[in-house]
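Section 5: illustrative case.
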């Protein structure tokens, strides 16, 4: 496996260097359709709730692999559809829609427009169950040749949720994790500060100053984007937040051994939450996956989609998916 990973990394780096200029395209989202979708999910308390997602696509939905996108804490589906700033397009969802994917950006339970149930009940297991039910619903209600290939793309805590869902239910044919480490690592925030947020109540707000410091490399991100990000920040349920802290403190509990599909991991060179300095160790965290590639993004902080080099990362995901997904 180690030889496969190293070989994959070398070939992907070469292919990306050759393909990236040709894969560049004009900014804008002309022709991209956006539809609001609602998905019923039933959680452990037996109650039924609604998960909202936004579906982005161009042309027909037939024969399009669908990327199901899961956001991190303090975000909702808007993480994947950031606005244009200073003439630059920051929307991952529209970028991928223009490349012939169907893209479903979810508001995870307790975030955005999805139902906001008890924030202490809504933990990691419930979030993974909800994601599985959305994937199951897509397949059950899809027309022929539609939504046959599912890909999970998660960022930060969304990557953790997608990993749990894939390990337990196996719905996706590939897994892309950005800004997340299953390798034990330190985060430069005092533990007492992180634990102190639990006292806020069932829904937690992370201060803008901390988000800016942890999430962005200011030399490679636009001040207007950082301001927008903080203005539109969402809350996070205490159950999910506690689960996140628990998994970061005990990463051996994360069921990565249950992942058998191809895995791509993207890590930012300047990410204070999940540093690319752990890339080599992270490549070994999926022992049963038949293919693992860890990609490093230069000059990038935690919010990959909000940095100047975002399209380099997007193009790498696109290229990798074209190589590994039928």
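Designed sequence:
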């Amino acid at each position: 496996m180690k030889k496969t990973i190293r070989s994959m990394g070398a070939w992907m780096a070469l292919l990306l260097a050759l393909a990236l200029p040709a894969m560049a395209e004009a900014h804008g989202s002309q022709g991209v359709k956006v539809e609001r979708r609602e998905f019923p999910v039933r959680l452990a308390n037996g109650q039924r709730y609604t998960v909202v997602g936004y579906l982005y696509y161009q042309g027909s939905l037939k024969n399009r692999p669908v990327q199901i996108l899961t956001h991190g804490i303090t975000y909702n589906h808007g993480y994947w559809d950031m606005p244009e700033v200073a003439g630059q397009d920051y929307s991952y969802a529209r970028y991928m829609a223009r490349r012939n994917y169907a893209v479903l950006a979810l508001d995870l339970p307790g975030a955005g427009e999805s139902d906001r149930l008890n924030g202490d009940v809504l933990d990691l297991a419930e979030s993974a169950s909800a994601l599985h039910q959305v994937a199951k619903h897509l397949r059950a209600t899809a027309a022929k040749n539609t939504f046959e290939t599912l890909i999970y793309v998660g960022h930060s805590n969304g990557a953790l949720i997608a990993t749990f869902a894939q390990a337990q239910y196996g719905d996706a044919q590939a897994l892309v994790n950005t800004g997340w480490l299953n390798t034990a690592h330190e985060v430069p925030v005092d533990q007492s500060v992180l634990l102190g947020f639990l006292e806020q109540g069932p829904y937690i707000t992370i201060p803008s100053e901390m988000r800016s410091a942890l999430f962005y490399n200011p030399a490679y991100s636009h001040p207007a984007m950082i301001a927008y990000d903080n203005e539109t920040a969402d809350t996070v349920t205490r159950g999910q937040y506690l689960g996140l802290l628990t998994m970061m403190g005990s990463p051996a509990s994360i069921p990565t051994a249950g992942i058998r599909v191809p895995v791509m991991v993207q890590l930012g060179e300047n990410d204070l939450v999940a540093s690319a300095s752990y890339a080599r160790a992270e490549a070994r965290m999926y022992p049963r996956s038949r293919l693992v590639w860890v990609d490093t993004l230069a000059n990038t902080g935690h919010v990959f989609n909000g940095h100047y080099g975002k399209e380099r990362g997007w193009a790498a995901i696109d290229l990798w998916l074209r190589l590994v997904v039928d």
